[in-house]
Amino acid sequence: MAESLAETTAVPTAERRSPAAAFAARFEAASAGGGLRLAEIPFLTQINLRVDPKSPAAERIGTAAGVPLPVEPGTAAGGGGLEVLWLGPDEWLVIGPGGAARDLVDRIGEAAAGEHVSVVDVSAQRTAFVVAGERARDVLAHGCALDLHPRVFGPGRCAQTMLARAGAVLVAGEDGFRLLVRSSFAAYVAEWLLDASVEYVTPGEAAPA
User: Fold this and answer.
1) Residue from 77, 42, 47 nearest 158 by CA
2) What backbone torsions phi and psi does residue 181 show, to the nearest 5 degrees?
């Protein structure tokens, strides 16, 4: 999922600069050994959705989005280029490619058909980091209290948690993890990820700070 979203958001405008753009070269250097991959996926569409999961509107919204809203706590569902994360009993985060916010908000609004639903574009609120590779869990374990063992937190799981004292939404996928963090904390989290990965990076691979 992370790869497909990255491919569809690869052309930011000249005026836009992602929250962790300054770390791109250092992420690339830390990823050179193959045991770990760090990257930013900037400018994803992110829609916060609140609706009664038992209401007709919830079912219609899932149909319109092409992804039924997951109702099991801590799970994620994907389809049609979108991913829906369970955040609470009546709250979800809908993630899609960059530039899709207006269309997605309109589709959800039409599906709600006047029922009590909250649909808010929060795309500018967070950026996304990829932490993948065989050492991904080791790196995250330095600052995350969740049990990240694949049997507990494998593909299709998500959670709101803390990483090194920064709030984050952590999503497990087939190719690793994604971290959604506040844009204002992006530089802090990027620096922390690089520091936590030092012992797993072959000497000479990491770019200078």
Assistant:
1) 77
2) -130, 155
Q: What angle do CA 28, 191, 203 make, to 5 degrees?
A: 50
**Which pTM does this prediction carry?**
0.88
DSSP E strands in the chain: the ranges are: 37-41, 45-50, 76-79, 82-88, 91-96, 118-121, 126-132, 158-163, 166-173, 176-182
Q: Report the share of the chain in percent with pLDDT over 90.
A: 83
Separation of alpha carbons 111 and 201, rounded Å: 48
- Let me know whether 83 and 135 are in one domain: no
Q: Could you tell me how far CA 178 lies from the centroid of its own chain?
A: 5
Which of 102, 121, 140 is a domain's end point? 121
Name, in order, each residue with C-beta under 8 angstroms of 129's C-beta and a sequence gap of 6 or more: 20, 38, 39, 40, 41, 178, 179, 181, 189, 190, 193
Domain count, the chain: 2
> Is residue 42's pLDDT more than 60?
yes
Specify the 3-state DSSP secondary structure of 59.
Answer: helix
Of residues 4 and 115, which shows the higher confidence score? Answer: 115
